[in-house]
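The instructor's notes for this session suggest beginning with a concrete chain rather than abstract definitions. Hand out the sequence below and ask the class to guess, before any prediction is shown, which regions might be ordered.
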Amino acid sequence: MGGTKNEAKAAPKREKLPARRRRVIRRIAIFLLLLLAVNYVMHLGYLLPVQGIRDIEARQGAPHGETLARLWTPEVHRTHLVYLRGSERAVTIADTYLTIYGWMGGFGWTLDCTEESPLYAGEMTMNGDGRQETVCCYYGRVDDPEIVRVEISVRAVGYAGTTETWEETASLPVEPEDFIAREEGRYFLVEDVIDNWPDNTFRQAWITAYNGGGDVVTEFQIMEGTHSHF
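After discussion, reveal the predicted structure:
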């Protein structure tokens, strides 16, 4: 009567990565190491986009905030990103874009929220070299709990003789569900892309805040902000 043999199972052999894939991975690793070295020595470029945003906050003397929203704006640059950042004392808008050196911080603007106000608002307008579109971002924070809705009116302002005239080109509402709620307040970020602006006029943006009954709580022209060209 023959016995059964327990045959030892051979361990599976590891398959080697194809030579071409190994070369690609090695080149990527070398590129990342060089990028980190360039950033450390020359302070050019960052590995992550949020590092570029923090650089802008540092340049402005603004506190490092929490990322609340992010917009991709290819009308300015194909890798262009806009960040909204908030903290207890400030709200910042800033942009970054990818280059051969890594992510570069662009421009930004910070609203000081230390003074008591029902509503803070600012803007950032951007356009790219050789591109027709202008990207306008409106942002801010609502501290008054009575405010349930805000609306931004973008206006083309001109003159007929000595009389100022204006025409609304866009109405950008921020409904209750659009707010980004945090302990210190409710934030918002809206975008308006302009590709055909009326001749012989300049742009103004007004913001109006409403309570639950539809009454106006506050209204003012947005004066704080920055414009950049890439």
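Then share the key points. The radius of gyration is 26 Å. The domain at 19-229 is CATH 2.60.40.10 (Immunoglobulin-like).
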